[in-house]
């Protein structure tokens, strides 16, 4: 990709290789692809270490297919979240190595499996079995971005010894993602036990006064264990993404 | 249409052309058509510059069809919002030039395409691709009422250079409509960049703590960019209507 | 003020009058004043037609005083909202022509009284007497920015003839601001009667299930009269600002 | 029905016609029928002027059918609300004169059509066409209980002259029921115009920040027109029942 | 007061006694007094049977005093709600027979003590002692408007025999007002026991999840006893007003 | 106290010792004392094992004093909650052995210190130090009603070993009350560890999204540890009362 | 099952029968079965008197089947809540004596029918017929855990004599569960009448402002009858579980 | 501090140096200090890298003073949040080097100023001047824990160039904390511009529909910029703590 930094553009202007008007255009307009109703951000891969992730909900099948094809032309590894199974059907002929994970509803291509963050493990912990789809969204996101993930599932506080049985698996990780619905108490307990960054993901698991995850969300925000960061309800992707970013710090 | 002003009625009374009782009736009862369970307001076209717009949701098919036929007898251009596709099927034989826009769910007849507001452009801006149906409701409403519309889609703040790339298209408009879901931050950023009236439309795009548009709505109401007017969640029609009214000021 | 446009900077670079590094700095850094903990935006006056308005709430007395003095050095007319009376006391010696309006809590200097928007009137309408402080914030804001304002107070729908008695004063305006608490019904009624842009301001007037203005806010957002733009609860300033911006369109 | 008053029971005890134990039983246990999982209150007809009304939602088909058959054995006129069409199918053979009103979802038998409240009219007023199902629940309830009902539909405040055109029909009624969704402003306007009791029924008509009727409910509770009583969202039955009770006062 | 009916005006026009322009003015402008920031509705006394009631909250002392003096010039009996004690101090010299009720915070003049509604009693019932201030607002309002009131206080459902002990006092009334905070269950129990109209007033008595009356409000709206009308939290005035209006029906 | 059972009354009627009318009165009217605006329930002591507890909030000083004096004439041990210190001052001369506990704000007389529930301990557990006032309300209530109480304070889940250090003190109790604010996770953890009834009391300790205890309340209601009963926010009294009732079961 | 107490492990260490490392493992890891994505807690049966109850919602059919089979290998009596009918179909061949209760949606095996709590009755009371499914979840849970249950259905407060007719059935129980939707007033009335522990279960029965059980929940939490414990909306299981635990106290 | 690891204890048991009973006690009871109503966790310093932080709100002066003195005996650097100025007065004589920061309300002793995280900078960014107190709580917390902090204040999106002017200061940091009230849009914009972990802190700055920070909180949770972790409203401490933990990862 050619050099588009401000310095390079200004140098070209000084050298007379670039007109002022053209320079202004370049300074104002980073490269991107304009699809129908969508703008594909080509710079995000270099800027944030991973191509733009497609949020499939609310987009038509046509829009999703167009965007995936455009990504496929440019990147080795890319993904979409909240994908409908039909999208996989529509794309599998054109992109034979595309994969669809039913539990997490992630549609992805992974041609690059390098662990960019080495042996730094991200632990993904769930309170119950029903929280697994959200946990898998977090885990698969982190894996696609180049991280090692350790899954520690169904260790909620109602039988707290289940958690203690797996404590080593959690405390030895570099970042911990806690996924829980209902009252979300697991985040507080884990937050008090580990010294690494904890990301809490409330899930919509529950009924009645769980208000579709609202209660878990509020509980996690009020955790007495300081230093827990919270993402949106059922936002496994956001948690996986943040864990990857933290894991990349050094 | 005959003169129904208060002055005209009073003059007729004075001249003895109108009995007191009849005059009282006229003073009390503006013209309108009574359909089954619906009152069609015939004065709105002259009073507000466009015939009464039919809100199709919650009305039976029969009610909608009756109202559209009554509008068709009297007006060149008229529209209904939140229309079901079946309404188009039920009406297309009787009103051959009726149109249905799937994205915005607007059912309309447009026999008059005059730009009543000249070259004053209304910019309709969206944060994401998923916001387009609401944006199209705004855009098509404004167009049917006689305005030029410029669409600037998928320029949300997560990749803010996408917005800056299209800034000229936005700042050169006479009125700007910003359509965004999730956290609705685009309204604040645009509000700080333009000097023209900004109408913000929160959308129900999002999940979890987006609470079906509530979060975007609240965020837009609290915009630190003063002077942004907000309409109801997903209310593209209201935004298009207000933009038209502002565009008609001179 | 010297020419800081992108074109001028690029030309200077080409001419060799500006180093690449210095040019980059200028391109990245618009002028502004850095006060302690506050950044005063000097470009806003030219960009938005009025100097930055100071939101006094949450700022210490010292911060407010510093900002007002900085504004006083540069502008003829400027203002702060939600100001405490003590700020007036702290500033009146240094800025003798500063004024404080108790009802609206606006602290301001108005040395320029030109009507920038000519005879285009902004009508400010309230449902009750208790809504006046918010209405005055809107009215005074619009006046300071150079608009003629007509006040139509205490014409709520409980005695709807009061509204009809003043209807001419409202319908002849170019923009209408409706200020109402409790159930906020006045916005819908006015919205149905006028053909000009209507800005609705919910107030915290009421008790119990008015929830400090929440009910009026929600009611206004759901107005059956299409084309009403709503601002935050008690946000007279925002309404006045938006009315000014609309009034400036032509 | 034999005399079950406390006085009669005590007299029987004194006369030795009733043992103390039996008397105690009678004093403690008013007559009622125990169906499977339901207790049919036989005294309500005399106590409240109309047999117990069946709330069909949440009851199984079997439970509903059993209760309707039990009512049919004892009463001339009775009704159920929120009835599914299938209940009519299940009962029409056994109770040939049972009727089902699709709009209001009322299932009823009306063998007694006497106007128990004479010529005192209950006006049922709606803001829009979409509010009619709820209005019909109110109107039919009031009619079954023996009241004359006048329907005034689609006279919302967005075109307020529609309301004024029908004002006589409203002000001449003895009780007024106002049915409105969205912002519910019609209740306030009518409340300010009439001198008779006004019952406001918020409906779930609307979208976005109407929150399924919550906004209309809150607005009606905060009506600036004092003396408006509010019932639950979409509770046409409750409004019809209360109007009947008021209409029966004399 | 001279005849201002539409018929009279039109007759005067026909007779040439009134110019068209003057007639139009009269038709458009009912009589009212314009005070500073307030419009006193002079027609309300004849229209609704009682002069406009002053809502003192949110009005300045000056505004309240001005309005009370204007009322005093025209009416025998009038009142203001949510009045501060200082208003009494400011008015007692000029209006020696003005009275202030501390519990209900009503400021009033009662020179006319006729029972306009004869011996029809309004029962005001409270769940607890803490609900009395709201109950007194209802009771005094009803009394000032010309009704007989019976107080039945502290009969909440926690000790339900207290209620049964006073049942005759309640069932013999023509209208019943139930005032309760916390869970507001009393309204449902009373609603099931009486055959007269019941008006429920939720109060802000309680703590924690009573949410300042919200819980009682919601509970009353969902009363399983059909036919209960609800007013705003702590709105004793509205309940008293509605009870009076119902009591006046005949 | 004389025999007031239904059997006794009926027998007296049969024997001719009681007129029918008098019998009816007795059957309808249990004994109670009518104070000004308050009804003191004299039967509650025998019915529920403890005299009526006075909820002081919202009652005037005069009302509270009157009720306490009435209780003092009849009972050995009694109490009021949410009492202001001034009540103690007003009563200490007349009732020298009255006591006021500042932390819990309980005003009480305890002349009977018998442990009616023997050695069955109620454990009162708090998450933090700030939860102690609510915990003390629960503990003192339980003690006054005749229970042994064990306090286990400041053992929240952020440092979960603090809880395990005191586990024996908790698991050996007959009933456990868990008092916690913020995210209330302690209730879930304790609920999973003990086999005895757990009563959870959310407190208003916290800030921001704790919403004055709402978050802890919701979390406790959604506890993944089945079989936890929850009371209102800060309702230590209710928890103490329920623990006493459970402790009395045998 | 072999002795796994801490004392036994430490003794083995001292005796040299257990290495330090192995002892540490045992101390840290209680026995449990790891299924795919689920951890089956084998100690809960001895710890809490009943095997872990399966919450079927949110688990896949495969996960549920696996867990039920694992339970079937180890226990005589066990259960799952919120089970789909298909689970019964999938399991009935392998576990012939498995049962499915349609009303409560409980899937269970009951090979042990001993009344572990003797003749101590748990009364399950409902306000209406629509509350029965939740009541049955409570009743069946309590029965499976070894309790005698008495059902008292459809005795809501709208016809309060229905409740009094069954009062003996309620007051003679050892624990009372009150199940009610809408305004949930029954819990307060029952709470005031009985001296035994009361567990209130709000149900989602209702519409509009019942907010899917939220109103009943809030009302029950604010019950003026002290000492009522509340569980989550529709949580019949939790209530049955808590009643069993209370019933087991002695 | 002597070795308290499980291995050491087990070894002592094997060696006969520790009785089984004493070993059990040690295994079950980590060291901590029991103050009146508070348990001071001595292990947290080694476990989490910083002594337990005192949350002063809701604790009495006496409790706070006791805890601070206990901390002072054991640690060089420690702190309390939400401290009242009086606590400083009460402690300054006994702990002469204690400091109180008025803006952040942090009370602290800092005898150890080593940068444990070297030159890894934490950027603390605010939208407005009013957000500074919360930002300072974050900044000072991070500094006390041994981090370098860079403050970038008043760069909200209403004038977005202010943000771009400081972009280098933000993008060069290792962790970014964004502090914003009102609509909280700054978090989304910054989240899209940086590749490092972003922690968003909503503040209660704003009015009306900002609902004391709720709107900013919801907006941040819905940020379209993936990978933003959110903490409680006004929880500067939690953000500083989490930033420190992330900064310590390597």
Automatic annotation (TrEMBL), chains A, B, C, D, E, F, G, H:
InterPro entries: P2CMN_synthase_LarB (IPR039476), PurE_dom (IPR000031). Residues 120-248 form the PurE domain. Gene3D superfamilies: 3.40.50.1970. It holds the Pfam family AIRC. NCBIfam families: LarB. This is Nickel pincer cofactor biosynthesis protein LarB. It comes from Veillonella magna. The lineage of its organism: Bacteria, Bacillati, Bacillota, Negativicutes, Veillonellales.
């Amino acid at each position: 990709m050619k050099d588009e930094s401000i310095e390079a553009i200004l140098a070209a202007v000084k050298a007379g290789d670039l007109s002022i008007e053209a320079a202004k255009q370049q300074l104002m307009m980073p490269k991107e692809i304009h699809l129908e109703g969508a703008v594909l951000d080509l710079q995000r891969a270099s800027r944030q270490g991973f191509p733009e992730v497609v949020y499939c909900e609310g987009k038509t099948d046509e829009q999703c297919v167009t965007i995936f094809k455009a990504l496929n032309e440019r990147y080795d590894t890319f993904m979409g979240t909240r994908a409908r199974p039909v999208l996989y059907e529509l794309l599998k002929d054109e992109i034979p190595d595309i994969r669809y994970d039913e539990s997490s509803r992630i549609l992805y291509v992974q041609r690059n499996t390098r662990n960019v963050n080495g042996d730094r493990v991200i632990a993904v912990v769930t309170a119950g079995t029903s929280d697994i789809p959200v946990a898998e969204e977090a885990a698969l996101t982190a894996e696609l971005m180049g991280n090692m993930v350790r899954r520690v599932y169904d260790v909620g506080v109602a039988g707290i010894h289940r958690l203690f049985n797996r404590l080593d698996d959690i405390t030895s990780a570099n970042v911990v993602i806690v996924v829980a619905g209902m009252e979300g108490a697991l985040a507080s307990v884990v937050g008090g036990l580990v010294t690494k960054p904890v990301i809490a993901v409330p899930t919509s698991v529950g009924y009645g006064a769980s208000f579709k995850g609202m209660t878990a969300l509020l509980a996690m925000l009020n955790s007495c264990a300081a230093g827990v960061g919270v993402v949106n309800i059922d936002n496994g992707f956001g948690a996986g993404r943040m864990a990857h970013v933290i894991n990349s710090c050094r």
